[in-house]
């Protein structure tokens, strides 16, 4: 077991639930210690990394091996009390030094390969998401210095078998698991306690005098708000999949303006009146896109192409090719309409706005000009 003393447990119904760490953290730690072993030319049995969320992990190293300018190390995935398909498996990194100056990241055995557009990674690339890519490269660069280069291969011998228990195949990720994690930490929570923790953040901001709030599904939304809307994190609260719950909490607390900001993959469900956006609850993304494209007069060919897509991002490529990007402004308006319907019995409902953005952090559409929304948030 790794040293978990750095993290307080999550309490639910009087029971302490242990946190864990992501496959991205495992890959980062494995790559860092492999690089350290090559540089120092001796085996290392424990390594520490700082996760993107700022938490320090002290992890035990398994199967360390050095051979000349190459080293291999593994970290065992520990999901804490949130056991998933990858819990308990070994994530390996093989680091080979060279004089090229560049760090090249590769996926080996058991790491899936992207075969379709729409997951934010290039077709043919290993399924190593953006945040783990950045943390792996950063940690290795810090170890080897600015002049040397390295090839870093992430592999997981059990990955192909474990991936059968995930949604990877549906997303066009074949041959193994994904290396994921935007915070590096796995937090086990029941749905009710999770929702309550999100609501507490709303309560704290309201108590501090905030009357206007931006609700985002996760980290990508917060980044868009900061970089493209110019608003500080003080105005942002994560809603995860609990859109309806968080809107109702914002109304209860007396917020005057609510702005929903997210990728169409999440927020499009709200346009269909789905206010809990987890795929286990409901998934009508393509049906909603097809219906609203049809309302805008899209040709049958486009409707059929979108209907066959597995991800919203893939559908967006076809929408762009046919020149129907105005669908996003239309959907943003529809989202606001659905929220107004939900709040129709509220005595003084808040102003509602919706903003949709792409994986590359660009605005796709909003119910009214983005400048107006931002100005109203700032006044």
From TrEMBL:
InterPro entries: CbiD, CbiD_sf. Its EC number is 2.1.1.195. The keyword Transferase applies. It catalyses: Co-precorrin-5B + S-adenosyl-L-methionine = Co-precorrin-6A + S-adenosyl-L-homocysteine. One of its GO terms (molecular function) is methyltransferase activity. The keyword ATP-binding does not apply. Pathway: Cofactor biosynthesis; adenosylcobalamin biosynthesis; cob(II)yrinate a,c-diamide from sirohydrochlorin (anaerobic route): step 6/10. Belongs to the CbiD family. HAMAP family: CbiD. This is Cobalt-precorrin-5B C(1)-methyltransferase. It comes from Pluralibacter gergoviae (Enterobacter gergoviae). The gene is cbiD.
């Amino acid at each position: 077991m790794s040293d978990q003393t750095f993290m307080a447990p999550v309490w639910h119904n009087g029971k302490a639930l242990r946190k864990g760490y992501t496959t991205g953290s495992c890959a980062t730690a494995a790559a860092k210690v492999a690089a350290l072993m090559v540089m120092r030319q001796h085996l290392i049995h424990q390594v520490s990394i700082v996760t993107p969320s700022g938490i320090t992990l002290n992890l035990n190293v398994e199967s360390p091996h050095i051979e000349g300018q190459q080293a291999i190390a593994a970290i065992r995935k520990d999901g804490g009390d949130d056991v998933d398909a990858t819990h308990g498996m070994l994530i390996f990194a093989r680091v080979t030094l060279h004089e090229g100056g560049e760090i090249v990241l590769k996926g080996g055995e058991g790491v899936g390969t992207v075969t379709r557009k729409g997951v934010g990674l290039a077709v043919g690339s290993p399924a190593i998401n953006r945040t783990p890519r950045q943390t792996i490269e950063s940690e290795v660069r810090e170890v080897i210095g600015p002049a040397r280069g390295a090839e870093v291969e992430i592999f997981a011998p059990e990955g192909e078998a474990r991936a059968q228990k995930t949604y990877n195949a549906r997303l066009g990720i074949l041959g193994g698991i994904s290396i994921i994690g935007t915070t590096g930490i796995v937090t086990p929570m029941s749905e009710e306690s999770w929702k309550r923790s999100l609501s507490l953040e709303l309560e704290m901001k309201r108590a501090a005098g905030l009357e206007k709030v931006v609700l985002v599904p996760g980290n990508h939304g917060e980044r868009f708000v900061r970089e493209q809307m110019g608003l500080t994190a003080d105005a942002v609260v994560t809603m995860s999949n609990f859109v309806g719950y968080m809107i109702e909490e914002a109304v209860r607390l007396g917020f005057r303006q609510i702005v929903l900001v997210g990728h169409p993959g999440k927020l499009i469900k709200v346009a269909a009146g789905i206010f809990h956006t987890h795929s286990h609850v409901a998934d009508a993304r393509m049906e909603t896109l097809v219906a609203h494209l049809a309302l805008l007069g899209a040709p049958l060919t486009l409707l059929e192409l979108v209907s066959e897509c597995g991800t919203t991002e893939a559908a967006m490529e076809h929408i762009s090719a046919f020149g129907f990007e105005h669908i996003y402004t239309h959907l943003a308006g529809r989202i606001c309409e659905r929220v107004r319907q939900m709040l129709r019995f509220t005595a003084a409902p808040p102003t509602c706005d919706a903003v949709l953005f792409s994986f590359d952090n660009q605005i796709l559409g909003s119910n009214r000009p983005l400048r107006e929304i931002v100005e109203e948030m700032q006044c």
